[in-house]
Amino acid sequence: MIYRTPTYYRDFRCIAGDCRDSCCKGWEIDIDEDTARYYAGVGGKFGERLRSSIRDGSFLLTEDERCPFLNKSGLCDIYTELGGDKLCRICSDHPRYYEWFGSVKEGGVGLCCEAAAELIISRPFALCEDEAPDETASGDYDEELFAMLLDAREEMFTVLADEKKPLCDCLCRLLDIASEMQLCIDMPFPDGETEVAAEAALRGAFALLSELEPIDEKWQPYIAECTERLSCSPERSSGTDVFLRRLGSYFIFRYLLKAVFDGEVLSRAKFAVFSLIILDRLFCLSGSSAPESCAGTAKNYSKETEYCEENMEELLLRFGEAPEFSLLSLKALIAESMGGNMDEF
C-alpha cells in the first residue's frame, strides 16, 4: 500500500507539558474497544482509578473539562504508569489523521494542535511516499474520478506554491479549477450566480463563524470582538502570505480527495479558500505576522471548524446555498480584501 504524507509529518513531536492548549482539555475522549478491554484487566490501585474514571466508553472529565489523567505537570498519568503503547487509539493518534483510498493511504498532522500548526506554517509544502506493508487496501471508489482529483489537487498545489503570482490570483484559480472539475464529473454542485458585495460577504462569513457550535468558550467572544473591528480592505502585510499558501495546501491535501466518495469538489475548495480569507483577516486584526502568533490563530480556527463534525457539515452546506459564498462573491471578496483586479479573475 502507498502511504503518502507531507514531508513535515515525520518531524512532528508532541510537546506534552509545554503545550499551552492541551488536547487533554475540553474534548470528549472516547476509548476504543481493544483499549477498554485492556483497561478492564489492569490491576492494583491504578486499575481501580482507570475503571472509576470511565463511563459509557469515555473518560469522565473533571469540572474544568480536563482528562482525569492529565496531571498538574501537563503530562498523562496513563503514559507514565503504563507506557505510551497503552494509550487509547484517539490519544495515541491525535493530532494525526488518516484517509484510505483503496490501495492508497494518506495521512498528516492536524492544524488544531499547537505544535502541528507551527510545523505546518514553517515548512514549504511537499509530499513524500512510503510503503505501508502491514496494511491492506480498503474502501471502494471510482478510479477514474480519483485520478482526476489527484491531477486537480496537484495543479492546486502548484498554483499555491507559485509565489510569483499574487495570492489573490492563486485563490481565484483554485476556485476555477474546482468549478471546472465539478462540471467535468457531471455532478452539479449548487452555486448561485448572485454576487454579494465584498463587505457584506465578509460580514456574512464572520456571522457564519459565530453561528457554529463553539468548542472553546473563548472563541465566540473573540469572533464578536473581531467582527466589531472588521474591515474588508485594511492595510495588510504580505508577510503572512507564505503562511496562507502553506495552510491552503494543508486544507487542499486533507479534504479535496474526499470528493471521490460524494462528488463535492467545489464545496471543499471553497472551504480552503474561505479558511484563508478568514485567517487573513484574523492575522491582520492581530497586528502580528510572527509565525507563533499566526500558528496560534490558525490552530484556534481549525479547532472550531475542522474538529466538529456538525460545524463542518454546516459550512459545506452553506457554501452551496448562501449567496455570500457563491463563486462570484468569493472572488469579489478576495479581490477587495487581498488586492487584485476583479476583471482579471
Name the features.
single chain, alpha+beta, four-stranded mixed sheet, 345 residues
Task: Explain how this protein is built.
The structure is a single chain. With 345 residues, the chain is of the alpha+beta class. It has two domains: 24-93, no CATH class; 143-344, no CATH class. 52% of the residues lie in helices and 8% in strands. It has 15 helices and six strands. Strands 4-5-1-6 form a four-stranded mixed sheet. The protein has a two-stranded antiparallel sheet with strand order 2-3. A hairpin with a 2-residue loop joins strand 4 and strand 5 (104-109).
Write the topology of this structure:
Blueprint: E1 2-6, H1 33-40, H2 44-52, E2 54-55, E3 58-59, H3 77-82, H4 89-93, E4 96-101, E5 104-109, H5 114-122, E6 127-131, H6 143-161, H7 167-184, H8 198-211, H9 219-228, H10 241-255, H11 259-262, H12 265-286, H13 291-305, H14 309-321, H15 327-338
Parallel strand pairs: 1-5
Antiparallel strand pairs: 1-6, 2-3, 4-5
Helix and strand composition category: alpha+beta
> Reading side by side through the largest sheet, how are the strands ordered?
4-5-1-6
The total domain count is 2
Taking pLDDT < 50 over at least 5 consecutive residues as the criterion, the unreliable ranges are 341-345
The helix count comes to: 15
Q: In one word, what is the shape?
A: globular
Largest sheet: 4 strands, mixed
What is the string of SSEs from the N terminus onward?
A: EHHEEHHEEHEHHHHHHHHHH
Q: What portion of residues is helical?
A: 40-55%
Number of strands: 6
Give me the Rg, rounded. 21 Å
How large a portion of the residues is in β-strands, by DSSP E? 5-15%
User: How confident overall, as mean pLDDT?
Assistant: 90
Distance between the termini: 40 Å
